[in-house]
Amino acid sequence: GTVCDGDWTIEDAEVVCKQLRCGSAIQALNRASFGEGSGPTWLYRVHCRGDESTLWNCSHPGWGAFTCPHYFDTGVICSGKKSSNLPRAEIRKGLIQQLAYRNCHNGYLKVSVVLREVTCFSGLRLTRGDTACSGHLTVKQEETWATVCFSHIDFKTASVICHELECGQAVDILRGTHLEDRHELIWQEEFHCVGNETHLAHCPRMQHHSKTCSHDATVVCSGETLLTNGSTTCSGRVELLHGGTWGTLCDYLWDLPAANALCQLLDCGVALLIPGGQSFGKGNGSVWNGTFSCKKNGSHLRDCPVSGLGHDECPAGKDARVICSGLSEALDQLVNGTACSGRVEIRHGDTWGRLCRSHWNLQAASVLCHQLNCGYAKSIQTGDHFVDGNGPVWRDAFHCEGSESCLWDCAQMTLGNPTCSAREAATVICSGSRQIRLVNGTMRCAGRVELYHDGIWGTICDDNWDLSDANVVCKQLGCGHAIKAFVSAHYGEGSGRIWLDDVNCTGAESDLWACPSRAWGQHNCQHKEDAGVLCSEFLALRLVNGNDCAGRLEVFYNGTWGSICSNRMSQLTAITVCKHLNCGDGGEIARDFKYGRGSGPTWLDHIECTKQHNSLWQCQSDPWDPQSCDNRAEETHISCTDREKLRVIGGEDGCSGRVEIWHQGSWGTVCDDSWDMADANVVCRQLSCGSAVSALSEAAFGEGTGPIWLEKVHCKGTELSLWDCPAKPLFGKNCDHKEDAAVDCSGYNRISTPVILCIILGALLCLVLAILAGQIRSARVQQRGGSLRTGMKCLLDMAVECLGGWGDE
């Protein structure tokens, strides 16, 4: 069986190499770099210190504790044995290098004829970098790591290093830390690589006679990701190195956060645009299907959760593409607007600061817009646009002709301290700053159409709005084709400007603003006429024929609801579905098919999720296919076991109080509109608290907090749970917490008022009987017998009636 790559580190690899007597670890690899294994996953989340004698002596959750897809199998590269004695007869000119390579795997340092020994070049590594593919270069000399001087390598050498470490292409060589006061072993040879060597040890080297080295070398590689077919190294089609093979990334849900994470990983600033169509051509090699789900700002692509990568075809337009702003070291950026508009900031050292606008002009602004792939400068807006911020105000003044490719190519002067206030910072609006987005849909491919123009977001009027117009929007956003063009503020009314009216696209335009329309800002509309679209790549998930958290699993794709097949589906995938639907952290696949059979397409099959996935869209699956299932018996039925929960708060016990339900990860209340005894009876029965004594309103047990989840509940009183009753989800402002509904239940262990009265009467009866018994003994039967019989009969009738009522309770 295999080892899963959860937190697989160089320390873990070191134990493996030592256990196999293969020297020390050079690299700890993951994502099935040496191909996918088979059989069980024996170990997961191994944590070694590096000094353990065997891998299973390291900390781990237990054997077979986690089932891990084999595309997460780990691997190692070890240095091999450090030296070997050679026969004296074989040490001949022309054979020395060959023998050394054979015995050391990675080449040699020197050959001693006297000792008949090859001293091996046994590894290289990059340390103290932001990623595994960048850092200070050290090589292993015998058993000691030696620092490589900045002056001892060049860009071709860096290319070989990145290739050997499977880190893509060399991006840069930087002067590292100062070594004058550091007591480290310094590598004494210069590397003179041609650039096509597979290992650094294969490069020619020259002894460096000077013992001095002022700075160490820092190498920056692109990592397992690069951009191809672009006009610069910071734009193009996304290609990934996976399993030792480069291939095009096919990502159905490729979005701006993932593109932004990639740009930062490649030291290319921020993502400006995800171009549509066939930009940057089609790859000729492998295709890797996967989805990167990047949510945290500033994250690198390799830190984002990713679905499994596998071979497949990639439909036209689904390959990942991006245009980044440029090298992050370019020392300038726009802040508080968009990628193509905002306050100008430049960096000195590690500090970002504003640029005073006193010497800022349209020529310099145009150079900056061109540098950021944002067209030309439309305006160096004054006033309050983009000015909020803090930090220093730099003294730089740029004197540009307007034809320079980079702001830093312009003549530059450092003036005296400027007297600049926060509202006097340099700003710019570039021509490429127009953007488009969809708002108020549940995902990015459906919603109200909004445009960013002249620094302001605004809407589009629905006059003449049709499917051709919507098609341009969907294509521009990489959301496939339009399913429906909505009018009359279907996705809610927007605010601010209404930018376009009477849009009349043919459907072939690349941008919505390329379509004929009225001039920007000219319209005769109100926001109740805002236009919207639904695109084919809009995805949604639901459970049907049961309730929100139990039923047959269906997905909305290409404008149609369809089923999902259950082949190879695990309980972990069912749990992921429940998380996705905000139905708790528990779920199971229902095998009784009680939720009926579907009639539409069967969209997906072979879905495999891992513990890292919180959304079904992150999981690996077969491609979209309307006939994925062989028959309807393969449709998936799921029951979420940790779905909505119910409680009552504020009463004396768990059977009276304000009604609260758990939904979408939080507790909320129920509005008292239409709240009656039938509703209260369902709540009491669901809580195992008997029947309802009263249905209370107007926050009788105090006002709750959080959302108000339901209003106008209409139970018959026979339902098994409150969410089986018809109700209206509360999204508006019809209720507030002073209208929270409540119940008082009889309870199985509680004593109601009639029962208490019967107990009192019973006690009084016993007392009366005792008195009468005494009187009977002392009285004469003949004189009082008739009256006693009458009195006893009356009391006994009372007792039977009382105790009979108690029994009913």
From TrEMBL:
What Gene Ontology terms describe where this protein resides (cellular component)? cytoplasm; external side of plasma membrane; extracellular region
State the disulfide connectivity: C4-C68, C17-C78, C48-C58, C149-C213, C193-C203, C250-C314, C263-C324, C294-C304, C356-C420, C369-C430, C400-C410, C461-C525, C474-C535, C505-C515, C565-C629, C609-C619, C671-C735, C684-C745, C715-C725
What membrane topology does the annotation report for this chain?
Answer: Single-pass type I membrane protein
Keywords for the protein's UniProt record, in alphabetical order = Cell membrane, Disulfide bond, Glycoprotein, Membrane, Repeat, Secreted, Signal, Transmembrane, Transmembrane helix
Which InterPro entries does the entry mention?
SRCR (IPR001190), SRCR-like_dom_sf (IPR036772)
Gene3D superfamilies reported for this sequence: SRCR-like domain
Say yes or no: keyword Protease present.
no
Subcellular location field:
Cell membrane; Secreted
The protein's superkingdom reads Eukaryota
Ranges for domain SRCR come to 1-79, 124-222, 225-325, 332-431, 436-536, 541-641, 646-746
TM spans (from-to)? 754-774
Q: What is its main location?
A: membrane
PANTHER family tied to this protein: SCAVENGER RECEPTOR CYSTEINE-RICH TYPE 1 PROTEIN M160 (PTHR19331:SF468), SCAVENGER RECEPTOR DOMAIN-CONTAINING (PTHR19331)
Protein name per Swiss-Prot or TrEMBL: SRCR domain-containing protein
